[in-house]
Amino acid sequence: MSEALPCPSWVWSTGSNAHAAKDRSWFCDDYTPFNSVVGHSIQNVYTPVVGIGSVILPVQRTPGSQDPANHTTIRLRNVLHIPSGLCNIIGCPIINDFGFMTDGSIPGASGTLIDKQDRPVAYFKANEPLFQIKVADPPIGPKVGPSPLKPGGLYLINIRWPDEERKKWERLCASRAQKYSVPPLTTEEKQWLKKYWKKEYYFLRAHGLSIYKDEDREEGRVILRALMADSEDE
Q1: Fewest Cβ atoms nearer than 10 Å: which of 80, 151, 185, 194?
Q2: If you average pLDDT over residues 149-176, what whole number do you get?
Q3: Are residues 155 and 197 in the same domain?
Q4: What highest taxon heads this organism's lineage (predicted)?
């Protein structure tokens, strides 16, 4: 039996202190099985967490254009894997890297995610419940299933990761003897990079990264592998 398509809905939740993903397929190679729980605005209600890792979302900067320059990615770190959740959540940690405009000034969008230079990075879909990031369509983005959020529906989307649970995760990370490292590009990956981007410099620049920083080049390899995996699924 083929694996079910992932939930497409990534909701910006100002009441959430962490990110969350419903499906394992959203996660990168740094995914770590980890048992935890999250609370909600309703007291004494807890939902299990089964893992934590990074998620790379392929997104469009603005509606309409399918030009490669109109596509980029957002990397979410320490995303909680919550299979029983209604949808995916983008929590408050994102404000460390991005700002928001929700004035509806861009046609076809209910708001925009902007970088520190006030450039659009992604947009929220218009005429949809809540603020949902528009994930790029295939072949740039993955194939996804139907949204669980229905027009006219009333939803209260939030999670609260308790401090003691977060500290458990931080202690686990600190106890690892060696830093998680991203292997260098393989010959196949270098060929893919050259075919679609010509040089690593252009690929990194398109994703807001610098070829002169080792940590940026490492993050670029993670992003490249996620994009290659999505294209292979087509």
Answers
A1: 151
A2: 89
A3: no
A4: Eukaryota
- Is omega for the bond preceding 142 within 30 degrees of 0, making it cis? no
What is the reported pLDDT for 52?
97
Do residues 18 and 106 share a domain? yes
- Whether 138 and 104 map to the same domain: the answer is yes
The per-residue pLDDT for range 10-21, each reduced to its tens digit, is: 999 999 999 999
Same domain, 75 and 108: yes
Q: Would you say residue 133 lies in a domain?
A: yes
pLDDT of residue 172: 86
Q: How many whole angstroms separate alpha carbon 203 and alpha carbon 221?
A: 10
Q: Is residue 39 included in any domain, yes or no?
A: yes
| 165 and 69 co-located in one domain | yes
* Pair 197, 185: CB distance under 8 Å: no
pTM: 0.78
- The order of strands in the sheet holding 32-39 is 32-39, 46-60, 71-81, 20-21, 88-90, 10-12, 132-133, 120-125, 109-114, 99-101
**Across 202-225, average pLDDT:** 88
